[in-house]
Amino acid sequence: MTTERLDQPRALRRSLRPHYDPEAFGRLSEQIARFLGTARFIVYMTVFVAIWVTWNIAAPPNLQFDSYPFIFLTLILSLQASYAAPLILLAQNRQDDRDRVQYEQDRAAADRNQADVEYLTREIAGLRLAIGEVATRDYLRSELQRLAEELKERR
């Protein structure tokens, strides 16, 4: 039994499984899911199916490769759907993760904004209290006018 040293990196293990980058695969799945959700994809699939059906109905019998119940077409469409559904779900999960991070950042920003508003509200209230004890311009003007009138009366 060998003991591994904690101050040294582990030796690389060889694996029979192929290595893939989950982030790159996720980006690819999002691109595919975005394409599957477009009108262009619907048009392409409609044209493909229309050509397939038209060919296998109108072409000479020796050139037809998928007769009326179109079993091969059904198989191809099922295969496409079996790959499309997990790719779409993977893309949705990645979007949910991004939305969750964005929501947390928005909430933190809202909390900071709320704290700033509360601080400014307290500061304004403090200034109002302080201003209540300070002579205002209107008060000084009225007092000067009163003093001027008193001086006029004494003369």
Give structural notes.
Pfam families: DUF1003. The chain crosses the membrane at residues 41-58, 70-90. This is DUF1003 domain-containing protein. The structure is a single chain. With 155 residues, the chain is mostly helical. The protein has one domain (22-154). It has helices spanning 22-36, 39-58, 71-132, 137-154. Helix 1 packs across helix 3. The protein is elongated. It starts with 21 loop residues before the first helix and ends with a helix.
For the structure shown, list the relevant keywords.
mainly alpha, transmembrane helix, membrane, DUF1003, 155 residues, transmembrane
Major sheet attributes? none
- The helix/strand order is HHHH
Number of helices: 4
Secondary-structure-derived class? mainly alpha
Give the mean pLDDT.
Answer: 89
List the helices and strands and how they pair.
Layout: H1 22-36, H2 39-58, H3 71-132, H4 137-154
Helix pairs in contact: 1-3
Give a short summary of the structure.
With 155 residues, the protein is mainly alpha-helical. 74% of the residues lie in helices and 0% in strands.
